[in-house]
Specification:
Largest sheet: 7 strands, mixed
CATH topology of one domain: Rossmann fold
Oligomer: single chain
CATH superfamily of one domain: NAD(P)-binding Rossmann-like Domain
CATH architecture of one domain: 3-Layer(aba) Sandwich
Bound molecules: NADPH dihydro-nicotinamide-adenine-dinucleotide phosphate, 2-oxoglutaric acid
CATH class of one domain: Alpha Beta
């Protein structure tokens, strides 16, 4: 048996359709939600350091803005394509609905491996992208943020170029900015922190103590590294971590601070001197751990490896890491999967707080932001947990159902159906 599809957009549509059917909403709701409202494709010519000119392809997909402005990150990665961006924007709509932040879904990206570019080339590419999408974004229209391969520096170039292009000083048009350049305290930590607290709450539900619990994390970028830090802070041992080079292992728990320092210099986990063992990156999924956190890319838990999983809880830091077929197998086995649209919603939640602070020209303390994030995510977790039992569905379907109700209500008031 193999997967029906690995196309992330078809998977996103399947997930939305399943939840619409379960809820029994009018057909019009899925008809509207099955496609993004707009997808822009742009060509971005960049003068390379060697004097040549290279044209890169970029996208911005705006899925649905019934609840509020489109919101979602921008990915710089060699595998970015139109359907991936459409899927990511779809997932954003339902993620915002899950935590109840007043946004719709958007997502952007450029097909490029940023590691192949110099800082100058990266800046010119980022500015070209901001100029190209400027006509369709805005502080109250569509608010991009970081995703794989982008960060606060890229957001800062976006802001500057947007201002040059439109003449408008609008720090709230992008979130995920550096803290000393209109960013919010606790945004950098937010997604990983959320992934950790959602695992903590799932553990509570099944009576799993985090003290000494073991964790495996795929991906050690923004999301994976902060998830690791917070899990250790809660008493757990992160025994395995992978990136595209390797999976490193230590039965006593990896030293996360030392690994962060190592990765800063070496750009990879392979060769970390603090590891007991080094394995192929894909061996991470079969590790004998209590909690698994996929924090890299789509389609990582599939029919190929789902039966190797020994974890009791999967907290999805990445967007779309699990195929529907693998999802069903984990549900049947009683593995709790905290779905991406809830587990990684900390990022957009604190992006919302950043935006509110920007609009008020005011800032909150780290503790205040993190407390607000935790309160919101814990409530969403509890609501979804209740809904899951009421309808006898998995957490992902329950999350979509909760979200669809909110979005369908807004669409109804607007007279869209
Ligand atoms: N940043 C945010 O606020 C949010 C991010 N997300 C999602 O979380 C995921 C990670 O994002 P983020 O941490 O920001 O991205 P980063 O670019 O910071 O990190 C991505 C990580 O994934 C690793 N990776 C890539 N391919 C593989 C592979 N085949 N096996 C193992 N590891 C791999 C990368 O390793 P290497 O460096 O070796 O390539 C890197 O460590 C994405 O799905 C993103 O959409 C979701 C919500 C918010
Ligand atoms: O911070 C944001 O606005 C969105 C982050 C993001 O891209 C995501 O949640 O996938």
């Amino acid at each position: 048996m193999s997967e029906k599809t690995l196309n992330p957009f078809e998977i996103a549509q399947q997930q939305v359709k399943g939840a619409c059917d379960k809820l029994g909403v009018e057909d019009a709701v899925y008809e509207i939600l099955k496609n993004p409202m707009r997808v822009m494709e742009v060509a971005i010519p960049v003068k390379m350091d060697d004097g040549s000119l290279k044209s890169f392809v970029g996208y911005r997909s705006q899925h649905n803005d019934a609840v509020g402005p489109f919101k979602g990150g921008v990915r710089f990665h060699q595998d970015v394509n139109r359907d991936e961006v459409k899927a990511l924007s779809t997932w954003m709509t339902f993620k915002c609905g899950v935590v109840g932040v007043p946004y719709g879904g958007g997502k952007g990206g450029i097909t490029v491996d940023p590691r192949d570019l110099s800082q100058g080339e990266l800046q010119r590419l980022s500015r070209g992208y901001a100029r190209a999408i400027a006509p369709i974004i805005g502080e109250k229209v569509d608010i991009p943020a970081p995703d794989v391969g982008t960060n606060g520096q890229v957001m800062s170039w976006f802001i500057d170029e947007y201002q040059k292009t439109t003449g408008e000083f609008a720090p709230g048009v992008f979130t995920g900015k550096p803290v000393d350049f209109y960013g919010s305290l606790a945004r950098n930590e937010a997604t990983g922190f959320g992934v950790a607290i959602m695992a903590r709450d799932a553990a509570k539900k099944i009576g799993l103590s985090l003290n000494g619990a073991t964790v495996a994390i795929q991906g050690f970028g923004n999301v994976g590294s902060f998830a690791a830090i917070y899990m250790v802070g809660m008493g757990a041992k992160v025994t395995a971590i992978s990136d595209h080079t390797a999976c490193i292992f230590d039965e006593n728990g990896l030293d996360i601070d030392a690994l962060i320092e190592y990765v800063k210099g070496n750009k990879q986990v392979q060769g970390f001197p603090g590891a007991q063992k080094e394995l192929h990156r894909d061996e991470l999924f079969g590790m004998d751990v209590d909690i698994l956190m996929p924090c890299a890319l789509e389609n990582q838990i599939t029919l190929k490896n789902v039966n190797d999983i020994k974890a009791k809880i999967v907290s999805e830091g990445a967007n779309g890491p699990t195929t529907p077929e693998a999802d069903k197998i984990m549900y049947d086995k009683g593995i709790i999967v905290v779905p991406d649209i809830l587990a990684n919603a900390g990022g957009v939640t604190v992006s919302y707080f950043e935006w509110v602070q920007n609009l008020m020209r005011y800032s909150w303390s780290f503790e205040e932001v993190q407390e607000k994030q935790e309160k919101l995510m814990v409530k969403s977790f509890d609501d979804i947990w209740t809904l899951m039992h009421e309808h006898n569905v998995d957490m992902r379907t329950a999350g979509y159902m909760m979200s669809i109700k909110r979005i369908a209500t807004a669409m109804k008031y607007r007279g869209w159906y």
